[in-house]
Amino acid sequence: MEETTSMPRIFRQERSKLPFSRPMVSSTPFNYKRPSTLPKRFNIYAQDSSPLQQEIPRNNTPIVKIIPKDYNLWFDGKEVKRFIKRVENIVEIEGASGRDIARQIFFWEKDQNISYHIEGIPGYETGNWEQLKLDMKGRWGTVSPERRYNLSSITQLFTKIHQEGGIRNMTQYKKFIGEYESIINYLKRYQYIHGDRNLNQEILACISSSVQESIYKEMIKDKAMVQGLDGVFIIPRLEILKLYIEQYLEAKFLIQQKEFLQANS
To answer: Which residues pair with 150 in a beta bridge?
Structure first.
């Protein structure tokens, strides 16, 4: 009986001598915290991950957020000087900077075409309120002689786009369509033209050939283009055409972004 009861104690003593029963000892204590930085191959924001990312300066100063509805602050392309004056009064009240305004003004536009134009101004990307303000006054304020458009302005815009090789991405498109709408609105305001001019064929021709072909295919597939009596397909009205162009360019950008991330993962 004594032999039987002593067996577990002997077994425990012998078992404690085995290697796997001893606690693991390491010269470096284990750290349960996650690493503060990811390895470069997993970090898409690493310093050398993209030349484009290196070109954009980073400003870590927090932006003073301004809520436009608190001040009934919206811009519709009219009374630009009054709008700018109100903005600068709000800047003083909120303790904001010109950079804060320049980076947020895009969201205070009621008209998408105005937003596109704002996005295409260099002052928007760099946060330069003074540059942005001057351009807004030139576009929507009292037009000075050097800013005046005429009927040849549209042709000049189309020619410039063709010389640059056509529109290939959303950034180029927004800049183009913003300028085009500004010219058309000016010509209507000063009665150079009356009603809507059908320049959809010319607008689509400003898109690069490869992108243009894909947009044609999508419109035909969706039956957005109808055949005239002579069998020629007719391009839809401008609002529909713009929708197809924007959807395709956005999809193209997302695909390129996905391919970039996969290549750098």
So the answer is: none
